[in-house]
Amino acid sequence: MTIRHRRESGRLLRLYVPVIPVCLVLAPLLVLALIAGLIACRVHKVDPVGALRGAGRLLWALPGTRIEIEQGRTAFSVSVR
User: 4: part of which helix (H) or strand (E)?
Assistant: First the structure.
């Protein structure tokens, strides 16, 4: 994932965030989020397999996504490759 941020001075700051290593570092939190999601599915009577399928479709659609935010002279852009 590439994050670009244009500062007020007009200078462009570009950061590359490797998604896989970040996910591996955050794996314990992801396991807790998975358990919380399963509990929420059970409480709200939602099929966990269907919820996972929907989350998978969302993640599958991410490559090629661009998010751009501009406010005044500040611009922020995120693109997932």
Answer: strand 2-6
